Amino acid sequence: MKKNQILAFDFGASSGRAMLARTKNGKLEIEEIHRFSNDPVLVSGHLYWDVLRLFHEIKQGIVAAVNAGGFDSIGIDTWGVDFGLLDKDGQLIGNPYNYRDVRTAGMQDEFYKTMSREELYAKTGIQQIDLNTVYQLKAVTKYRPQDLAQAETLLLIPDLFAYFLTGAKRIEYTNASTTGLLDPVTKDWNADVLNALGVDKKIFAPIIKPGEIYGNLLPEICEELHCESVPVIAVATHDTASAVASVPTTEKDYAYISCGTWSLFGTVNDHPILSEQSRQIGFTNEGASDGKIRYLKNIMGLWLIQQSRKEWKRQGLEVSFDEMEKAAKEAEPFRCFVDPDADDFVAPGNMPKRVQEFCKRTGQYVPQTMGEILRCIYQSLAFKYRYSTEMLEKLTGHALPVIHMIGGGIKDGLLCSMAADYCGKTVKAGPVEATVTGNAAIQLMSFGIFKDLNEARKVIADSFEIKTYNADTTLDLEKPYAEFLKYIGK
């Protein structure tokens, strides 16, 4: 490494940032140099990602990195499942849709006319939710077949950005594994699923593994941004896979919650679990940075709290997250519950009203105040973590005594402490910047700075604050937990 620092781009559902990372005195340092919003755009009833503006922000991050001393490589991670289509000239065919777009409504049932949900899970091991790429492609075949007729290449979002930078068309393994199209055993596109869709395999770019290189920055990019032609490294481009790479443990059996807009709750297995019970409970088998399987459940997470805050702001009530935590703590517990993963809460909108409507529909007390609504959300999330822990231990056959909570959501101390109490587990929270840290670690592994993932995790554990929450064993939670379980799937 010439500059002794690398550039990591991390895109979330609502914001993105560029961060420089370097090793110094046996520790990993990270520094934010550019931050920007990620604002999906609703046009004519459909929700899109503004990818050209986001690529502009990547360029601004590169310029900022050049001005901060330069960098030796670039790695990009984003959310999963969404994609762009390129025509024969390599041009983008329209803006990529946002995974929350309404066009996937009913597409599961459409797909199951050609392949049963049981067979699909046995072939791909992916939790069956509307946003999956397989159902998005079903929507394309139904509503926009002309797009597929023009398409020569499909690229997932991080791979699309890498293509804009390098001209290389590749799809990185961990993100490919989220699509519902990949065989988790062979780690290649499943021909039977593609045949059921009526989509030709040839549009899917070759798969690249974490740590491999897409290519170097294009000459025109270097000329425009006054930078050197460094490699763009395929990190674990699915943000959760990068985050899990940063879990500060070398233990084999552990649980993690990658905590943010979503709560990704799981463990890492050597092999996928493709049983019917696993499918029914909603666990998913996605790729890990080291080629293993992230076995996890997607839980709606802090989305409900974030959307509630936005709604109150629209109503003229300015309230901080700290004030919301305080209001939740002061509200009476266990008066009502929601299933955070109910369809009621998927789309953006008036979340407090939806919480009230869920409670009314299920015959519960209807929360009235901000504190009551937030308490309902918090305790429902914490009990969903407990339910997921119990199912995870049952399906894997392993006891998981420690839950590692990672990501920006751990700034919410109430959620961390409730996770420990409600699950009856020790929670270790940190690092906050888990995704960027994992992104950086994989780039540094590619350079040989870290010899393997275990060494990277040891350095991470020494470099960032890890806060421990011990469960309050005096709490009697069995009765309210039993009540909560009544509302799962409602």
CATH class of the largest domain: Alpha Beta
Unreliable stretches, pLDDT < 50, 5 or more residues? Answer: none
Number of helices: 19
Silhouette: globular
Whole-number total of structural domains = 2
Number of strands: 21
Roughly what fraction of the amino acids lie in strands? 15-25%
- Main pleated-sheet profile: 7 strands, mixed
Q: What is the fold-level CATH name, i.e. the topology of the largest domain? A: Nucleotidyltransferase, domain 5
In CATH, the homologous superfamily of the largest domain goes by the name ATPase, nucleotide binding domain
Distance between the termini: 54 Å
Percent helix, as a range, is: 25-40%
Q: In the CATH hierarchy, what is the architecture of the largest domain at level 2?
A: 2-Layer Sandwich
Overall pLDDT score: 96
**Order of strands in the sheet with the most strands?**
17-18-16-15-19-20-21
Secondary structural class? alpha/beta
Question: Over the alpha carbons, how many angstroms does the gyration radius reach?
Answer: 22 Å
Provide a descriptive summary of the structure in words.
This protein is α/β, with parallel strands linked by helices. It has two domains: 228 residues, Nucleotidyltransferase, domain 5; 223 residues, Nucleotidyltransferase, domain 5 (2-Layer Sandwich). It is 39% helix and 19% strand. It has 19 helices and 21 strands. The strands form six sheets. It has a seven-stranded mixed β-sheet, with helices on both faces. A six-stranded mixed β-sheet has the order 3-2-1-6-14-13, with helices on both faces. The chain has a two-stranded antiparallel sheet with strand order 4-5. Strand 17 and strand 18 form a beta hairpin. Helix 15 crosses helix 16. The radius of gyration is 22 Å and the shape is globular.
